[in-house]
Amino acid sequence: MASFNIVMPKLGESIQEGTITKWFVKEGDTVEEDDMLFEVATDKVDSEIPSPVDGVITKILYAEDSLVAVGEVLAVISLDGEQEETSTEEVAEETKTEKAETVSEESENSVDDSRKLSNRFYSPLVKTIAKEENVSLEELESIEGTGAGGRVQKKDILAYIENKGTAAPVAKAQPAKTTSAPVVERKAPMPVSIGAGDAVIEMDRVRKLIADHMVMSKKVSPHVTSVVEADVTELVLWRNKNKNAFQEKYGDKITFMPIFTEAVAAALAEYPLVNSSVDGDKIILKKDINVGIAVAKPDGNLIVPVIKNAEQRNLIGITKELNRLANAARTNKLEPAEIQGGTFTITNFGSFGNIIGTPIISQPQVAILATGIIEKKPAVLETPSGDVIAIRHKMYLSLSYDHRIIDGALGGAFLRRIADLLEQFDTNRAI
Ligand code: CO6
Question: 266 or 185, which is more confident?
Fold first, then answer.
């Protein structure tokens, strides 16, 4: 009987496991391609995973709330529409020993190499077909998907292959292969005495993952933080003057964040070393400038959607994308791809009235900017007729950076450049 293993998909570059929060199907159910199978939660985002094939669910190997490594088999679908007779243990064992004749997500030279892929999600079946039919990664990326959220479906890739003049492929049976994905290691904590009356709160999954990432980031890269002050009076006046007209014209509210993002993207283009990652003894200068924006969610969690190719967008484009992503973040509607690929992060703790901070780098990036609250302050201005004290709009910008590759001179110059760009904002800019 031909069967298909549903495995825990790769949901992000650094994501190695996910929790099955809900099964939408049960054993014996008939499913069609693109029917939702289960919901998975990772450290950053919750996703619904559709079926890549038509068939009958014969085995469900993990219950809800199970934490499962990427690549592990979660369920088996019979492609012939027959109930499978083997037991759960047998299926798992077959998978481990690479005997099961199933189509698997993982295979040698698979197109699913997260280092090479952009941020699109491809079902195991689509990837298998692509491999069988020698559809390159670039070609795969160019196919317009008709599935939910533009997902490439089986029929899309088959149509693409047909148009190329290639015979329509049949997904051939291949040995399944499971990955031994590493589990995030948590060190034994220092003993803590719990007294009578102390409250004990169990950390939820997201909190544990955030905690692990923060500890890892601090361990991996020695952080230093530099701070500059910027006089942003001109841009504040421009924003306040154009706020209503902007909203009327574009249907989107403009805050200071898009202006910060625009300045950051321009500065990153001038300082490529800040838009990089460290890989062992190598520094990888990232081609794309993808700016992550920390968004506070109503449930108290934090998520960082990414404005892709921010330097190629104008202020209107950045504003629209920022508002779209922030709304999606707050309503749990972000796609996995929308939180991946960031090359730099901005956290606007000015939203909480904070002025200066020491943010922690989101690995594998090498720097993060915190924008403080813009406040009116008395300032000394030099004028042709002498110094005067004036009321100005000022803010602090705090940049944490990875001292392994960014020294104070570079970090300081980059930070000052952002401040200069904000201070030199063209108040005559048309909307
Ligand atoms: N100064 C002055 N006024 C501000 C500022 C600053 N820095 N930031 C926002 N605002 C104003 C903003 O212009 C809006 O004013 P009006 O347009 O006049 O109504 C208003 O405050 C509300 O802005 P909002 O937050 O809704 O929108 P904004 O585009 O500025 O920010 C966001 C979008 C998604 C970044 C924001 O909503 C958010 O989620 N901020 C929190 C980010 C966060 O939690 N960061 C992690 C902090 S922890 O970094 C950290 C160092 C460690 C501790």
Answer: 266
